[in-house]
């Protein structure tokens, strides 16, 4: 699968400004459906997995980055890249002098090998109702089962929009070692999970999994 990563090496943004970079690029290319997160083809308007994601990537120091997945999105963003010489954030025009677009073929999908990943930003895998059930469950085994089920569901949701379906008999195995932390998102308080997980599914670095991926949550990076 084709993946592109655009690094803005000379652009200094804080976590609260990353979404403003996304809004600027979305508005600049609002006529391109692939950059938006709404599934207009569905019978009812629903969220879909974003093929273009905006992150703060820790490259010492952290820099803004755009992650682009699939051939269609990468080819489109190559056009965006050529025209992206300035951005506007908080009504301030910022010239872009250093932009580094890296395009590569990456593995994605079920594997006979096992890999270990880290959530470098909290994974929001449970909605408020499911988290209430999770919090009220006393059994550690049952809590773990609920989280494994949710993470597998999120991986399959991501796979659907990236054009990949596991073949019959290709079961996703998963082990978790994570902890809970409180997330404040707009006017809601949600539960996020950080830590590591092991699975036989290949996930490219810096992709987001779960809810609020466009806000930077659920970003993963492979450790082993």
Describe the structure.
It is a single chain. The chain is α+β, with helices and mostly antiparallel strands and 224 residues long. It folds into two domains: 2-105, Alpha-Beta Plaits (2-Layer Sandwich); 109-222, Alpha-Beta Plaits. 25% of the residues lie in helices and 38% in strands. The protein has four helices and twelve strands; from the N terminus they run βαββββαββββααβββ. It has helices at 18-28, 71-83, 128-136, 140-161; strands at 2-8, 38-39, 46-47, 52-58, 62-69, 86-89, 92-95, 99-105, 109-123, 174-185, 188-202, 220-222. Strands 4-5-1-8 form a four-stranded antiparallel beta sheet. A hairpin with a 2-residue loop joins strand 6 and strand 7 (92-95). The longest helix is centred in the last third of the chain and has 22 residues, at 140-161. The chain is globular and about 55 Å long. 25% of the residues are buried. The model is unreliable at 40-45 (pLDDT under 50).
């Amino acid at each position: 699968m084709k993946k592109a990563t655009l690094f803005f090496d000379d652009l200094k943004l804080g976590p609260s400004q990353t979404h403003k970079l996304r809004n600027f690029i979305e508005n600049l290319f609002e006529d391109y459906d692939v950059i938006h997160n709404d599934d207009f083809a569905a019978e009812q308007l629903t969220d879909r997995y974003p093929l273009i994601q905006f992150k703060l990537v820790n490259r010492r120091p952290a820099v803004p980055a755009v992650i682009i997945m699939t051939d269609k999105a990468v080819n489109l963003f190559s056009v965006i890249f050529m025209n992206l010489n300035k951005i506007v954030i908080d009504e301030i025009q910022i010239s872009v002098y250093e932009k580094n677009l890296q395009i590569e073929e990456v593995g994605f999908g079920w594997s006979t090998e096992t890999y270990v990943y880290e959530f470098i930003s909290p994974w929001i895998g449970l909605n408020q109702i499911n988290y209430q059930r999770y919090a009220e469950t006393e059994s550690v085994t049952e809590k773990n089962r609920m989280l494994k089920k949710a993470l597998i569901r999120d991986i399959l949701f991501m796979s659907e929009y990236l054009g990949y379906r596991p073949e019959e008999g290709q079961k996703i195995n998963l082990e978790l070692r994570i902890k809970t932390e409180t997330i404040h998102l707009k006017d809601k308080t949600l539960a996020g999970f950080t830590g590591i997980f092991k699975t036989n599914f290949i996930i490219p670095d810096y992709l987001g999994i779960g809810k609020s991926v466009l806000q930077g949550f659920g970003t993963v990076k492979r450790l082993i």
